[in-house]
Amino acid sequence: MVRFIGEGTGRVIVLNLKRGELLLESVEQELAAAGVKNAIITGAIGSLKKAVFHRVTGMEREPVDEFVTVEKPLELASLQGVVVDGHPHFHMVISDLEKTYTGHLEHGTEVLYLVEITLLEVSGLDLHRVKDRDNIAILTQK
């Protein structure tokens, strides 16, 4: 285990995404505009008309991912993760009327009615990701 300790928190970013906006792309755009390098997501709720995500499919040494697209009315029940060096790494829990899905949020996920997201900037960390020998993007400090 490796531990990173920040000096504190900074700005609170609240995003209100509307119908047709792309979830991950909008977050990336707003983080860049605000100059946010490191943050934690404190909450997100809303509805989606299209969800694009990936999930692991096995237990091999290197991850093997399945990419999934679901196009139907979906509730966004949870969005969790971190922003490292300006790059969001978010996982979500979504559901339709019959199933629940979970996985790593990908580009192309589209808002149905609205999505509200809050992020808390973390100061005093200079983190980035580096692929290790197993092709896993691990956190490191610059």
UniProtKB/TrEMBL annotation:
Keywords (A to Z) from UniProt: DNA-binding
Annotated signal sequence range: none
Coiled coil: none
Annotated transmembrane regions: none
PROSITE patterns named in the record: PPC
Tagged with keyword Protein biosynthesis: no
GO molecular function: DNA binding
Alphabetical list of InterPro entries matching this protein: PPC_dom
Start and end residues of each PPC domain: 7-142
Protein name: DNA-binding protein
Species name: Ruminiclostridium cellobioparum subsp. termitidis CT1112
